[in-house]
Amino acid sequence: MKKIAVILSGCGNRDGSELQESLSLLLSIDRRGWQYQCFAPEGFFEVVPHIDVEETEEEGTMLDMEQRDIFVESARIARGNLLPLEQYRPADYDALALPGGMGAARNLSTFAFDGPRMEVIDSVQDAILETYRAEKPVLAMCIAPMVVAKVLGRYEVELTLGPDNNQASGIAKGFGCKIRACGPTDVCVDTEHKVLTTPAYMAATHISEIFDGAENLVAALEEMR
């Protein structure tokens, strides 16, 4: 029975882990009778409203740049079954997975703010590098492949960020990655480097596509030797 480590980045598509992608990934793992363990880094992030609100001079923004803890927010998705990312050890797991959501670009890395000058936080970089060096698969959905691109681009890994003509794909190429254009439910499998990616909401418009993409991603992992 496989055991998959999943890195969360908060709770909500605009400032954390995308809920539909995260739950589809966990469900696809569970349906195979496998286990998963969720992890998250500790630290604070700025909340982004998940509804469109009009800003006024008197009221300001809805949340006035409220800050929350990444670990505490991620526990909402994991139903409290969450470990600090510093406790992750590749030897205890068969693969490492990162669902999407802007938390990957804001909390796990600085891609949302710095673009091609982005940095990845130490605990996430260490987790990805240690998994890669242990020759175990790394999976990523939606915008999360940007984090993988920054860490593993030097190895010329192949991955997808949806259409290959978007800004993210261009930046990933600059890190040394090979980019494959994929549709919403497609999976890019780099068998040499054991990196598996799917576009999810980088290309999808329906929740059914999110589930199908996650299912295809985990199926590709199951087939990998």
What does this structure look like?
The chain is of the alpha/beta class. Helix content is 33%, strand content 17%. It has a domain of 157 residues: Class I glutamine amidotransferase (GATase) domain (Rossmann fold, 3-Layer(aba) Sandwich), CATH 3.40.50.880. The strands form 3 sheets. A 7-stranded mixed beta sheet has the order 5-2-1-6-7-11-10, sandwiched between helices. The chain has a two-stranded antiparallel ribbon with strand order 3-4. Helix 1 packs across helix 8 and helix 5 packs across helix 6. The two termini are 14 Å apart. About 4% of the residues have low confidence.
Offer a quick outline of the entry.
With 225 residues, this protein is of the alpha/beta class. Helix content is 33%, strand content 17%.
Spatial shape? globular
What proportion strand? 15-25%
CATH class of the domain at 3-141 and 206-223: Alpha Beta
Number of helices: 8
Report the mean per-residue pLDDT as an integer.
Answer: 92
Number of strands: 11
Named at the architecture level, the CATH assignment of the domain at 3-141 and 206-223 is 3-Layer(aba) Sandwich
The first-to-last residue Cα distance is 14 Å
- Rg from alpha-carbon coordinates: 16 Å
Biggest β-sheet, characterized?
Answer: 7 strands, mixed
> Which regions have little confidence, pLDDT < 50, spanning 5+ residues?
55-63
